[in-house]
Design brief:
By secondary structure, the protein is of the alpha/beta class. It has 2 domains: 216 residues, 3-Layer(aba) Sandwich (Rossmann fold); 101 residues, Magnesium chelatase subunit I, C-Terminal domain (Helicase, Ruva Protein, domain 3). 45% of the residues lie in helices and 16% in strands. It is built from 14 helices and 11 strands. The strands form 4 sheets. The chain has a 5-stranded parallel sheet. Strands 3-4 form a two-stranded antiparallel sheet.
Length: 329
């Protein structure tokens, strides 16, 4: 594929639609102070139709942020509070017997929406967490013998609290891999928190600025973003460095990696880099686009050893070592 395949009209469309998504960030900013990086990645998730795992201590506006995004998009939104006694049927729905008709009727669960907030997802046992797998991967739900397609776009934003271990369950690796991004929501800066004290926040201030059709159009434009073969090889080098560190002169991090990232990570890295270029009003991907999204795409997919945990080595540190060691094109 060559760059000149992209028409001038498509390049103009990319710039116009990118401005619309910049407007989304401004609308969410009416309610959320700071957290610009998180809001940018929510934009990326919308463009890639990918799911997000948000990790942060309570009270840093994770839930408020997602609600503000849905208000700006006018999409159907459901919040599900995950608890230890939650059942899969509470999530996807079940069959209920109607004595009047003497037949079973399908009662759909809260997963039937455009944006799902799975609040404190690690508080529910594995059987409930895995009930989301079909919805996240196939965008469909099976209840009894019937399969229902979910309305598009369909995105799951899950939150988890990293500081509490009691009464929580570790997410299955198969489910973690289906989250396109894992974002770390930090405390606001001092001046940002001062602004939070002064402002009165109201979601009624948010104006709907994007429709489903706008999102679908932008998603198609992202697929047309040009990626040079050198950039594709750069992505492959990053991914394969997690699987074979010695082969990339990274023997020093080899003891910390139990298993590298999956091919799903390769696809996610490529797609997210294109979406990042789109938000920057570009019709081509640069190495900086790959570097910008790599930590959020890879940090949760890396399997770290007990040695890494003992030495407080995080996935971010491993990814940053790889990014600084591999020469960019």
């Amino acid at each position: 594929m060559t760059e000149n395949i992209i028409s001038e009209s498509t390049i103009a469309q990319i710039k116009d639609e990118s401005n619309r998504f910049a407007g989304l960030s401004q609308e969410v900013g009416k309610v959320i102070v700071g957290q610009k990086n998180i809001i940018d990645f929510i934009n990326l998730a919308l463009l890639c139709n990918g799911h997000i795992l948000l990790e942060g201590v309570p009270g840093v506006a994770k839930t408020t942020m997602i609600k503000a995004v849905t208000d700006a998009l006018g999409l159907q939104f459901h919040r599900i509070q995950f608890t230890p006694d939650l059942l899969p049927a509470d999530l996807i729905g079940t069959l209920i017997y109607n004595p009047k008709t003497q037949a079973f009727e399908t009662k759909k669960g809260p997963v039937f929406a455009n944006l799902i907030l799975a609040d404190e997802i690690n508080r529910a046992p594995a059987k409930v967490q895995s009930a989301l797998l079909e919805a996240m991967q196939e965008h469909q739900v099976t209840i009894g013998s019937e399969t229902f397609k979910l309305d598009e776009p369909f995105l799951v934003f899950a939150t988890q609290n990293p500081i509490e271990q009691e009464g929580t369950y570790r997410l299955p690796e198969a489910q973690v891999d289906r989250f396109m991004f894992k974002l770390l929501v930090d405390y606001p800066k001092k001046d940002e928190e001062r602004e939070i004290l002064k402002k009165t926040f109201d979601n009624k201030d948010i104006t709907r600025i994007l429709t489903k059709e706008d999102i679908f159009k932008a998603q198609e434009l992202v697929k047309q973003i040009y990626m040079d073969e050198k950039i594709a090889n750069y992505i492959l080098d990053i991914v394969f460095a997690t699987r074979d560190p010695q082969g990339y002169n990274l023997a020093r991090i080899a003891p910390y990696i139990q298993h590298g990232v999956s091919p799903r990570a390769t696809l996610a890295l490529s797609h997210a880099a294109k979406a990042h270029a789109f938000l920057k009003k570009r019709h081509f991907v640069t190495p900086d686009d790959v570097k910008a999204v790599a930590p959020s795409v890879l940090r949760h997919r890396l399997g770290l050893t007990y040695e890494a945990q003992a030495e407080d080595i995080t996935g971010d540190q491993v990814v940053n070592t790889i990014l600084t060691s591999i020469a960019s094109p």
